[in-house]
Amino acid sequence: MISKSYKFRDESAPRKIEDANAVMPDDWLEDEESLIPDPEAKKPDDWDDSMDGEWEAPKIDNPKCKDRSGCGPWSKPLIDNPNYKGKWKPPRIANPNYKGKWKPRQVENPNYFEPHPFSQLQTITALG
To answer: Does residue 97 lie in a domain region?
Structure first.
């Protein structure tokens, strides 16, 4: 029998989807990179191209993008998918016959006794 919660369930729906109503801001610089090589950075004196590889200047934030909405390729933001329900899991129901965690029954052992190791010794009357 298929559960009612499983009927008509699309498990292939993605968790996030692109916002269909989103538009690129007017001040977005699509042709500019958001990070550029630092123009003030200099190649270290002890840099060896044959051992260390080709030197690349560290990247800094593009100053042209500072007072803009952004730079670089624009993509629509992702929003939560209202049709996403995740992987189906069967509902858990309480077991009316559950009596708690199982533990073995404890029975009296008729052969059990407390050992007294010094009970077999004779009485000591002197030390020395």
So the answer is: no
Six-digit token pair at 37?
């090589």
Nearest residue to 39 (alpha-carbon basis) of 24, 18, 57: 57
Q: Does the structure show a pLDDT above 90 at 13?
A: no
At 57, which CATH number?
A: 2.10.250.10
Q: Could you tell me the CA-to-CA distances from 43 to 14, 46, 49, 52 in Å, in that order?
A: 46, 9, 11, 12
pLDDT digits (tens, 9 = 90+) for 52-84: 899 999 999 998 888 888 898 999 999 999 888
70 CB burial (10 A radius; 0-12, 13-18, 19+) = middle
CA-to-CA distance for 100 and 55, rounded, in angstroms?
A: 67
Of 96, 63, 74, 69, nearest in space to 30 by CA: 74
Intra-chain end-to-end CA distance of the chain, in Å? 88
Neighbours of 51 (CB within 10 A): 6
